[in-house]
Amino acid sequence: MSYIDGFVIAVPNVNREKFIEHARTLDAIFVEYGAIRVVECWGDNVPDGKLTDFRRAVQATQDESVVFSWVEWPDKVARDAGMAKFMQDPRMKAAADCPFDGKRMIFGGFKPVVSLPG
């Protein structure tokens, strides 16, 4: 079964287009190194919770939107190999000009336990 890297970040609304360009550049590298699919989702309906929520998780301000993203890999072995190449790729220098505060990013690796339809 596939392996998923998930990310949640806060992006200043004024940086929306810059973020999309940044994501297209880096996401293409993920695909080059074996990712099956990369999805970047700009927050549209991200409500405030009573105890916790996406906005609080990344300390989003009123002028920021929450972005929820994932990278799907064929399996964890492919992910580990692809991510190692990704992190060493000289194009990663583009990440230094990040349109969001990377210190507030939350991320993790996940093993799917249910996948529909297939």
| Percentage beta strand | 25-35%
- Biggest beta-sheet profile: 4 strands, antiparallel
Rounded mean pLDDT is: 95
Query: How many domain units?
Result: 1
Keywords for this entry:
single chain; 118 residues; alpha+beta; Alpha-Beta Plaits; four-stranded antiparallel sheet; 3 helices; 29% helix; globular
Structure description:
The chain has 118 residues and is α+β, with helices and mostly antiparallel strands. It has one domain: 2-Layer Sandwich (Alpha-Beta Plaits). 29% of the residues lie in helices and 26% in strands. The protein is built from three helices and four strands. The chain has helices at 16-32, 54-57, 76-88, and strands spanning 3-12, 37-42, 64-73, 106-110. A four-stranded antiparallel β-sheet has the order 2-3-1-4. The termini are close together. The model has no long low-confidence stretch (mean pLDDT 95).
